[in-house]
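User: I want to check something. If I give you two sequences, will you return the structure for each one separately, not as a complex?

Assistant: Yes, each is folded on its own. Here is the first sequence with its structure:
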Amino acid sequence: MEIKVLGPGCKKCHETEKVVREVIGETGVDASLEYITDLAKIAGYGIFTTPGVVIDGKVKSVGKVPSKAEVKGWLGK
């Protein structure tokens, strides 16, 4: 599973990355996590309000910090 957190490095973006990392650790899901700060790459996903979360190429969240429950749902846990 490939997970990308998209954002320029703001507080909400870092919090989103933290939540996703914690869920990966808690669930033991086999996933790679990448934090993308390049605005052109972020826009390439159609995301213009950060933070964003993309899982296996599909946009799951835009413009907010997701809850752990939301992330677990996306990961099928």
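And separately, the second sequence with its own structure:
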Amino acid sequence: MSSVLDRPSATDADRELRADLVGRAAKLLPLLTANARRSDDERLVAEENITAIEEAGLLSLMRPRRFGGLQTDVRTLLEVSRELAKGCGSTSWVVTLLNVCSWFTGLYPAGAQADVWGERPNNKVAGVLTPSGTARPVDGGYLVSGRWSYASGSAHAQWAVVGAPIVGADGEHTDQGLVLIPAAELRIEDTWFVTGMRGTASNTLVGEDVFVPAHRYLSAVKAIHGEVATPFTEEPLYRAAFVPVSALVLAAPQLGLATAALEFVLEKAPKRPMSATFYETQTSAPTVQLAVARAASLIDSAHLHAYRAAAEIDEAAHHGVFPDYDARARTRMDTGVAVSNAREAIRILMSAHGAASFAESSPLQRIWRDSEVASRHAVAHPEVSAEVYGKSLLGIRGDVTPLV
């Protein structure tokens, strides 16, 4: 089993670019922090955040260089999203999803990519992979109808990638895929009324008999097994395994949220009394000392698992190797461990800081809410991921979910 935390094929230039991009994200933290409560209250990431992030190049991480993108790697997206989440979980989640939807678009035929970026390279793509629509074959393409819930980032996107099985005249499903549709041909229903990640505006996209040309269809069944439509096979990023990438990126905001919670508690501990005890400050209380140690270790573990998974995804893509089932199952497990460890660390820190954690004025309560909601995403579900991995270790494969 590999324990490498960055792909061996990464060059000094790759790491320098990554460090520069993370540095750009860090410079935006005062803005994101200042706008975090407003984004939460208004259920929409502040437009100033999106503009500043775009100007910093952080929405082009997964866009092909052919269209002015940076075309980095999964590890870079993890680190940038993690940094942004220290300022605002909703902003980080939106940036993560917009970037990974650019990656999905890079898997399509050349014509589809040109449709999205040919005239406007800065176009952003939101998406919902759940096959909650239908695609009926017609001359030259498909008529697509459906409702796609939890479309994170759709308020800021010019295109959408959505899931839709192909349905024949007899009602039989002949394939399950993803279609690219201009946002102007869909409508957004305001349905995102939730406790956490409120600012993501993960509303519902609705389409009715939208014509989609055949070149804007991608078979999800084939993509899951490593067969994509891009002709640019020399680009390592778009050789990365479909489900491992789709799952792992969801852990990135969790890493930043947990880190922000730890930094906040450590900053406040020397100034806060330990209520109902003889300890003058939290810093001097063994209860708090043990709690922050446990939380910090869990956060470290979350990072280690996420970075190992990213290294394996990126290195396989560099060499043009599609990981086998067991390797993909371990990536799902690594994702689940990262998510659950970050969530548990936040829970511990909430208790260590005390009841004030839940004050509306405290960033901790928003961090906690954001983590609790985001960590329930189906593709990163820790318990399902553990079942997939445990069965794969015992030689049982393919009987839990196709998303491996």
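Because they were folded independently, the notes below concern the second chain alone. Residues 26 and 83 are 6 Å apart (CA to CA). The chain has a mean pLDDT of 96.
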